[in-house]
Design goal:
Radius of gyration: 34 Å
Largest sheet: 8 strands, mixed
Strand order of the largest sheet: 8-21-20-19-9-16-18-17
Shape: elongated
Length: 789
């Protein structure tokens, strides 16, 4: 048990038997640049650029789309380089150092200095850094981060310990058997590096789908437009290219990716300033959609530090002896949790009796025990240890539980132990009363969530009466609806999850089941945790939040880490998420107005053999002032409303009416222009003004309720567009229209605004009617149900 000597360590290092891993194949900077520059859409923009040059256009106005394309590529390169750095640090094993025995002394070394046959010390809460064999002690290990199974596996001398797993309880010494690339965790990391992909929320996935379909459509549509312009409209090659380029540029949401990336990155920086770490930028979208928040009692509602309030003897005699006996017991356990630290601080440390076996605390059992030659002492939850005798002491327990105190029972068990389980109730000697004060800002925090329609579910391993009392003190709505999780059958867990707010005596596996039950009811669930027993539930939840003061395992499993370990910062995080996603959703609606309009107008010109009226420079100018600038500025505007509905349905519902009105007004203008023999330049100018006007009107609609910042944003957009047209009209292909053209343009502007109101109302009415009709079966069976397999 003296461990390796220095000479043995040096020998193993020379032989390569040291815990150092190959980083594996990584993309070079050249490969990253290649993948972000030579993309499908960049190829399309390159073809467009070549066609414009072949058409004889060399002015700056014809290439205004290129700065956005270049910026998109640069941002993509930056993001991937940063992601590559993160990927190079990807590891299941996060513990930086470990305690080993070498030359007979315990010393702390870096994990990458471990060698084969080293002796490592392990205790509850530690992550196992290499594959090892337990040679002394016993412990319970959670391998859920590796296998997904939540069961705590009891390890005894001779059992294998897998790297990446966590010690839940107990302690011991292990011998290193595999290091470096040969460890179980390292093999998983190599596999993950070959398949890892940043988890994306619904918003980014929806944008990906939109861009995918646009990419499929634009090439055949562009070719048809050029062929139709040359063969049927008898336009010059230059004019045909101009119309096609304007339509294609209008259909590509070239600034949407850039806007989303910048908005999420800005949000991540703002949260970092508030001591909040995001493992994944897209997790902020998930948090903004949360309508159910599952929390623990200790460390979240209450302060993390626990204190012993007093001891209540079952028999009043020999109280002093009880203090010594309990002190003798608790000081034999590892101080690996707040409860044990509080007990060891309160009870005196005396001469320790020699134990035959120590039964460490398990979340599933909720007790600890020490086995002696002719006796066993136990400490834990009264319901678990008193069993059928609990009713005799329930009034004592409830007396303190109803005030929010935590109650433990201490007692003796004279019979032979069957493994780690008690065949019958222990003989209680005393009840230990512990207290966690409610956080000062807890009431204000939960009042915020109630105002934001976020339901709170308190999931704890403590007595449900105690947890309910603490929840009521914190102002959590529905705290009087509580249940003992041990009474919940698997078939009833969905009903229990819906009807109750407080869940006591919950096992780690039940935490996961409760979250799955809430998700099955259509809820978006966030889970907060700080311990190893929370990992599986956090991985199951839609969004997971960890306290930095908790176990490193919980922080690694979480998407969001509160570096100050202060739950009162959660409202600020939710606000930030809702502001970012709501504003991106609003901006995406503006982008899609242009995309849908350009597509529909292109189809109209193809089927009617009319000339596409807009020019690429005009589309670029409108995109800048009606979409890009206001879209970016609005991402800084507060918006705390909860995200509802599907992203793609919402943005299409906002964008489609405006795009339809644009097509209607400009299509009618093209017909009237033919009647009054208006020039193509006049039609193009008025069409651009109509598109810009509808964009401003939609910007007003999407910015409601109007604030000073939103009003200034709209004003800047309108004034900027008018100024650009006034001072640089020729650059953007605008002409000075005649009085007749101005009059017709004014009529169409007013008509477009009036029609937009009606179209928006009709689209909203039909959408609501369709949703209602879908939810209501006709004559018991909907007609499409007959065709379902």
């Amino acid at each position: 048990m003296k461990g390796l000597t220095a000479q043995q360590v040096h020998t193993r290092i020379r032989q390569g038997k040291v815990n150092q891993q190959d980083q594996g194949p990584e993309k070079t900077f050249r490969q990253i640049v290649h993948e972000n520059v030579f993309t499908y859409f960049n190829l399309i923009f390159l073809v467009i650029t070549i066609l414009i040059l072949l058409g004889g256009h060399f002015t700056i106005s014809d290439f205004l789309f290129l700065p956005v394309v270049i910026t998109n590529s640069l941002m993509g390169i930056f993001q991937e380089v940063r992601s590559q750095k993160t990927l190079s640090k990807l590891t299941i094993v996060s513990v930086p150092s470990v305690i080993v025995t070498r030359d007979g002394t315990a010393q702390q070394i870096r994990v990458d200095q471990l060698v084969i046959d080293d002796l490592i010390h392990l205790q509850a809460g530690d992550q196992i850094s290499v594959d090892a064999e337990l040679i002394s002690g016993n412990m319970s290990v959670n391998e859920s981060i590796l296998t997904g199974e939540s069961d705590e596996i009891v390890k005894q001398s001779g059992d294998q310990l897998l790297s990446g797993s966590y010690v839940v309880s107990g302690s011991g010494m292990a011998k290193v058997v595999k290091v470096g690339n040969d460890t179980y965790a390292a093999k998983l990391v190599q596999k993950a590096k070959s398949t890892v992909r940043e988890d994306q929320g619904e918003m980014v996935k929806a944008i990906d789908r939109i861009v995918k379909w646009i990419g499929i459509i634009i090439i055949p549509l562009g070719l048809i437009m050029v062929a139709q312009s040359l063969l049927f409209n008898h336009l010059t090659f230059s004019a045909a290219i101009n119309g096609m380029v304007a339509a294609i540029i209008g259909m590509i949401p070239e600034g949407l990716y850039l806007l989303v990336t910048v908005a999420l990155a800005t949000s991540a920086v703002r949260l970092a300033c508030r001591k909040v770490l995001l493992h994944n930028m897209h997790s902020i979208e998930q948090l903004s959609r949360v309508d159910t928040l599952c929390i623990d009692k200790t460390g979240t509602i209450t302060e993390p530090d626990m204190q012993v309030k007093k001891i209540v003897p079952v028999q009043t005699n020999a109280v002093d002896h009880l203090y010594e006996e309990i002190g003798n017991t608790v000081h034999q356990f590892s101080a690996d949790n707040e409860t044990m630290r509080a007990l060891q601080a309160y009870f005196p440390k005396v001469t320790l009796d020699r134990a035959q076996r120590i039964i460490p605390f398990k979340s599933a059992n909720k007790y600890s025990a020490i086995v002696y030659a002719d006796d066993t002492v136990a400490l834990g939850a009264p319901e678990n240890l008193l069993q059928d005798q609990f009713a005799n002491y329930q009034s004592t327990v409830d007396q303190y539980s109803q005030k929010g105190f935590r109650v433990l029972v201490y007692g003796h068990y004279k019979d032979h132990m069957d493994g780690d389980h008690f065949a019958h109730a222990i003989q209680p000697l005393a009840f230990i009363i512990l207290h966690n004060p409610v956080r000062k800002n807890a009431v204000a925090t939960f009042k915020f969530f109630a105002k934001q329609d976020v339901n709170i579910k308190v999931i704890s391993g403590d007595n449900p009466v105690t947890v309910a009392a603490v929840a009521q003190a914190a102002g959590i709505a529905g705290a009087d609806h509580y249940i003992d999780a041990r009474t919940i059958k698997d078939d009833d867990i969905k009903k229990a999850a819906e009807e109750n707010t407080v869940f006591g005596r919950v096992t780690p596996d039940q935490k996961k089941q409760l979250i799955e039950a809430l998700q099955a009811q259509g809820h978006t669930v966030a889970m907060t945790g700080d311990g190893v027993n929370d990992i599986l539930a956090m991985k199951t939840a839609d969004c997971s939040v960890a306290m930095a003061s908790g176990a490193s395992a919980a922080m690694n499993a979480a998407q969001i880490v509160l570096l100050k370990s202060d739950f009162s910062t959660m409202p600020q995080i939710v606000d930030e998420g809702r502001r970012t996603v709501n504003n991106i959703q609003r901006s995406a609606s503006l982008f899609l107005i242009k995309n849908i309009f350009s597509f529909l107008l292109a189809l109209l010109t193809v089927f009617t053999s009319m000339t596409y009226p807009l020019r690429s420079a005009q589309v670029s100018l409108i995109s800048a002032f009606m979409i890009g600038i206001p879209g970016y500025l609005l991402t800084f505007e507060p918006d705390h409303s909860r995200i509802k509905g599907h992203f793609i349905r919402t943005v299409l519902g906002n964008a489609f009416p405006a795009a339809l009105v644009d097509v209607f007004a400009i299509g009618l203008l093209m017909v009237v222009g033919n009647i009054f023999h208006m020039s193509n330049a006049d039609v193009s100018t008025v069409s651009a003004f109509i598109m810009a006007f509808v964009g401003i009107v939609m910007l007003v609609y999407l910015s409601r309720p109007l604030t000073i910042i939103r009003g200034l944003t709209i004003l800047v957009s309108a004034v900027g567009f008018i100024t650009a047209v006034t001072l640089m009209g020729e650059l953007f292909r605008f002409v000075r229209p005649s009085f007749l053209v101005l009059a017709l343009g004014l009529v169409f502007l007013l008509a477009a605004e009036a029609v937009l109101i009606d179209v928006r109302w009709l689209c909203k009415y039909f959408a609501q009617s369709w949703q209602h009709w879908q939810r209501k079966p006709k004559h018991g069976v909907r007609w499409w149900d007959k065709f379902k397999l």
